[in-house]
């Protein structure tokens, strides 16, 4: 059973500053509470019993808002003292985990999938890494993941119109198999683009929202209202 998750919450959130000001995106109020709580509730409701929050920008605000426990579940913090890149941040956060497989999610996106089914798919194939892919009518804002059957064959850049699968921002990593660099590095460039042929794609038609820009932030407020 999947029991641990890392939430990546270290970004500066520059595109949302007209709404968020100096508050980190995951802590921005969405219909009465910080957005990160919706993510954490989704994780806890599906059996996660330890959350590790990878933080950098205004880390103290996360600690003072959330504390070391949420709904009876332990919350740990992996604090980026110097720039590590997304890959380095994940590697550091994974050192606080005791599981051989760990779920990684973004602190500014909400994905409504069955994480335990995602985990079963990952274990069944003994995958180094699995990635949740969401079917979208318009992939232009995100770029798309190119598939051939059940294999990932590459990525398309942002801007291309039309439907397809996007990276849903949820990954399962097997620490036993992954060998991350020791220096700061980009998870997207070093891991996704170099290991894409070995990644297990988990295809879904699930609800997905990214609050990175004001229009989608307001859409999230409508979704979670009441």
Word description of this protein:
By secondary structure, the chain is α/β, with parallel strands linked by helices. The chain has helices at 17-20, 35-44, 59-66, 85-94, 115-124, 187-195, 214-223; strands at residues 4-9, 29-30, 33-34, 50-55, 69-70, 73-79, 101-106, 109-111, 129-136, 144-148, 151-156, 164-174, 199-204, 208-210. The strands form 4 sheets. An 8-stranded mixed β-sheet has the order 5-6-4-1-7-12-9-13, with helices on both faces. A two-stranded antiparallel sheet has the order 2-3. The chain has a two-stranded antiparallel ribbon with strand order 8-14. Helix 4 (85-94) packs across helix 6. The radius of gyration is 17 Å and the shape is globular. The protein starts with a strand and ends with a helix. The mean pLDDT is 93.
Termini distance? Answer: 31 Å
Shape: globular
The unreliable regions are: none
- Sheet with the most strands? 8 strands, mixed
Determine the structural class based on helices, strands and strand pairing: alpha/beta
How would you state the average pLDDT, rounded? 93
Q: How many H/I helical runs?
A: 7
Order of the strands making up the biggest sheet: 5-6-4-1-7-12-9-13
Radius of gyration: 17 Å
Beta-strand proportion? 25-35%
Measured as a percent range, the helix fraction is 25-40%
Number of strands: 14
Tell me which oligomeric state these chains represent.
single chain
Strand and helix order: EHEEHEHEEHEEHEEEEHEEH
